[in-house]
Amino acid sequence: MSLYSDIRRIQKLDEKRNPMFEKNRFAKVMIYIGIAFWAAYLVFFGVLLPAAFSDSFPNMEPYHILNKGLLIVLALDFLIRFLFPTPVQEIKPFLLLPIPKKKVMAALLLREAANPFNLFWLFLFIPFALLSVTRFYGLAGVLGYAFGIWLLTVANSYWSMLIRVLKRQKFVYICWCLPVYGIFALLEFLPGTHWVSTFTMNLGEAFILWNPLAFIGALILAGMLGMLNRKVQLHLIYNELSRVEDTRLKHISDYSFLDRYGNVGDYIRLELKMLVRNKTPRSQFWSFTILTVLFALALTFEVYGDGLMNDFICLYCYCVMGLSTLIQTMAIEGNYIDGLMVRRESIYNMLCAKYYVQCALLIIPFVCCLIPVFRGSISLLMSVTYLIFTAGVIFPGVMQMAVYNDKTAPLNMGLMGKRQGNNAYQTVILVASFTLPLVIYKGLELALGATTSYIVMCTMGIIGFVTHPHWIRNIYIRFMARRYRNMEGFRNTR
């Protein structure tokens, strides 16, 4: 434990001594606000779901329904953890010290078990259990349920860590997780089976009843995955030390079909190559694509019931990928802003190209949302409405950040790496992007009905898309008015 405490103290000192510590204070505040937002979001669902499940499944207890979906929660947790660093990266500074690397690795794995993120899902499960479990089993049942869920998240963290370590050696190793989830899917979705959901339902109830076999099984699973991590990561330490970035020349398409679109086509080509070549945009693309698929599946199986939550999730599917990119408009370009500024109207053409690319990428959530449409979970009109509204209203609002972003975003850094904080406008824009469309829809629905509301929102989106040359020109003019201030910020934060 003393080694664990020393490692934690050293890592905190490293953060404080980093030259970017002071500059990152605003970013840290924004991170804390974001954590608080998602915690409140989970609490909201924890309070909402018992009533929703009772209405949708009157013959079953709400906690049985949630327990049936435990694997979905763990799969989402598995993907989120890909944003975090792995111990095989963090052990490097300690290898030169007179400490056995086995002890250092054990301390880092222990720290992973004590990671506060392992408690994050309890913001969902504890409020849910207080409303659905206490009337049958009291607070003891809630505590047992929370402890069992924590053990599962610890085991899941070790499982995610193992795949992340293997992925760093070779990306194809990520396929190791596919047979696992493929077997789970077969066991669940083969006709007349549902074995996985039945098992997780019984496991959750065993936690509530303080069944020792359930806790022992979860502890054994976490321990086995921890030992496997320790063995694999110790084996790969020196591979990691000698690891160099791949600098081999690779063939990348010239996208010659874009030549017909002139200067805008050139910048569309630049956007596509940036997406392929650079770590930060590529990681964002794949992370949010996976998130879109997961939320589309949630819509398919009506995890959130129906009503306004379906609208929110459908909207989230369409806007999350575009928001992650457009919120950083000009921040990425800050890496080469001097080259952009020497060409006539290059900023305008670049903004047009960025908008066209993000509109084209909306085909991904549209295809994903066709599955819940065919299953009847959502209407085709709802899906098309949020596609058009996202392209014509939300994207124009988010692209206003091009005027105010004045800090360079790194092109080759992980999503959770140390980066510059930006400004408070980003938080305001993000919150507004997810709340205002629902407020608009709800207001229109109360006044005009659901179908008419969707038609009105479609019309607003079409107007925004048709008029895009004008509002992009407006963004360009405002950016040029404060270009010297922004360029100084870009140069100082590279």
What class do helices, strands and sheet pairing give? mainly alpha
* Main sheet overview: none
Number of helices: 23
Number of strands: 0
User: Shape, please?
Assistant: globular
User: What Rg, in angstroms, do the CA atoms define?
Assistant: 24 Å
The proportion of residues in beta strands is: under 5%
Series of H and E elements: HHHHHHHHHHHHHHHHHHHHHHH
Task: Estimate nothing, just give the exact number of structural domains.
Answer: 2
Distance between the termini: 39 Å
Share of helical residues: over 70%
Q: Give the low-confidence spans.
A: 416-421
Mean pLDDT: 80
Would you mind describing this structure in some detail?
The protein has helices spanning 2-17, 25-56, 62-68, 70-80, 87-90, 101-113, 122-132, 134-169, 177-189, 195-208, 212-241, 262-277, 279-300, 308-326, 337-341, 346-361, 363-375, 380-398, 401-404, 424-448, 450-466, 468-481, 483-492. It is mainly alpha-helical and 494 residues long. The longest helix is centred in the first third of the chain and has 36 residues, at 134-169. It is globular, with a radius of gyration of 24 Å.
